[in-house]
Amino acid sequence: MMMEAEEQPRKTAFYSKLPKVELHAHLNGSISSNTIKKLIAKKPDLKIHGQMTMIDKGKKRTLEECLHMFQIIHLLTTSPEDVLMVTKDVIKEFADDGVKYLELRSTPRGENTTGMTKKTYVESILEGIKQSKEENVDIDVRYLISIDRRGGPSAAKEAVKLAEEFFLSAEDTVLGLDLSGDPAAGQAKDFLEPLLEAKKSGLKLALHLSEIPNRKTETQVLLNLFPDRIGHGTFLSSSEEGSSDLVDFVRQHQIPLELCLTSNIKSQTVPSYDQHHFGFWYSIAHPAVICTDDKGVFATRLSQEYQLAAETFHLTQSQVWDLSYESINYIFASDSTKADLRKKWSHLKPHF
Ligand SMILES: [Zn+2]
C-alpha cells in the first residue's frame, strides 16, 4: 500500500533529526564499513575483508565471535594516523546521525610495529576530537579511557594513570573510565584498587556489568563502587538470573543504565528485541540511555536504535523525545554543558 511505503522514510527522518546523546560507543567497534575499506586499502597484505568486521542485518554471532572481530579491527588501526582518521570519521558519522553530544571510549593501545604508545594513542584520539571541533562538526565530544579486562590489574593501573594525567591536561575532554572487554576475563576484584583510585581523583566510572549470566558476586562487587553509569546490566533483571536485591540497589541509587539493543541481540545475550531489558527499566521509569555500543560491528546507528526501541515498546514520538532529552542528565560533562544541550534541544523541539 502507498501509505505504508511513504510512512517509512518519514518515520526514519524523525529519529535522525531527533537530537541525541550517545554515551556508550567503543571507538574501534564504531568504525563504519566505509572507514574499514580505507584501512584495508592501507594494509592489503593482511587480506582482511569487510564481512570479518561487521555483522549484517539479520545475522548473529556469539559474544566470543564478536570479541574476535575486535582483534581483527585492531590489526587495522595500528598507527597514530589510523587512530586519528577513525576518530574523525566516527565523530562525523555520529554528527550526521543527529548526535549532539558523544562520549567515546577506547583502551589505550601500544603497537611495536609502528612505535605507537598508549600515550600517543590517547593523544591521537584527543587530536581527532580537537580537529573535528575546529572543523565545526556540530557535536560535543568527550573521551572515556577504557580498561580492557584482559589486560589485568597492571594495564588497569596504567589506564588510570593516563586518565588522571589527561583529566588534568585535556581541558575537560577526558572525563572518566570504562571497564569493558571480555566479561569472562579476570575478576572484578582485580580492578577495584585502580577504579577506586580513579574515583578519588574525580574521574567518573562507567562499568560494563552483568553482561553475561551467573555473575552475581562480581556484579555486587562492582556495584559497591557506586559506578556513575552501568553498561548493559543485561542479567540484573532477567527472570532466571536476575536478583531483586541487585535491581533494588540500582534503583535506590538511581544508577543510569546504558542500553544497546542491537548489540545484545546480535551478540545473543538477549533472545529478541521484545525481550530486551529496556522494557523492564523503562516500565519502572529508571534512568536509561539508548546507545549503540559498536555501530560499525553491529551495522547500526543511534537513530535506528531509538526507532527500534520505540517500535518494539510502542513509544510515542513525545516519549521518544523525553527519552533523548532526559539522557542529558546522565552525561559526564559539567552542569554548564548540560544546560547548553538543554537549550539546543528546546530549539529543535517539534510540535507533536
Ligand atoms: Zn560496550
From TrEMBL:
<keyword id="KW-0479">Metal-binding</keyword>
<feature type="domain" description="Adenosine deaminase">
    <location>
        <begin position="19"/>
        <end position="344"/>
    </location>
</feature>
<keyword id="KW-0546">Nucleotide metabolism</keyword>
<comment type="subunit">
    <text>Monomer.</text>
</comment>
<dbReference type="InterPro" id="IPR006330">
    <property type="entry name" value="Ado/ade_deaminase"/>
</dbReference>
<dbReference type="GO" id="GO:0046103">
    <property type="term" value="P:inosine biosynthetic process"/>
</dbReference>
<dbReference type="GO" id="GO:0009117">
    <property type="term" value="P:nucleotide metabolic process"/>
</dbReference>
<keyword id="KW-0378">Hydrolase</keyword>
<dbReference type="InterPro" id="IPR032466">
    <property type="entry name" value="Metal_Hydrolase"/>
</dbReference>
<protein>
    <recommendedName>
        <fullName>N6-Methyl-AMP deaminase</fullName>
    </recommendedName>
</protein>
<dbReference type="GO" id="GO:0046872">
    <property type="term" value="F:metal ion binding"/>
</dbReference>
<dbReference type="GO" id="GO:0004000">
    <property type="term" value="F:adenosine deaminase activity"/>
</dbReference>
<dbReference type="InterPro" id="IPR001365">
    <property type="entry name" value="A_deaminase_dom"/>
</dbReference>
<keyword id="KW-0862">Zinc</keyword>
<dbReference type="GO" id="GO:0097305">
    <property type="term" value="P:response to alcohol"/>
</dbReference>
<dbReference type="GO" id="GO:0006154">
    <property type="term" value="P:adenosine catabolic process"/>
</dbReference>
<dbReference type="Pfam" id="PF00962">
    <property type="entry name" value="A_deaminase"/>
</dbReference>
<comment type="similarity">
    <text>Belongs to the metallo-dependent hydrolases superfamily. Adenosine and AMP deaminases family.</text>
</comment>
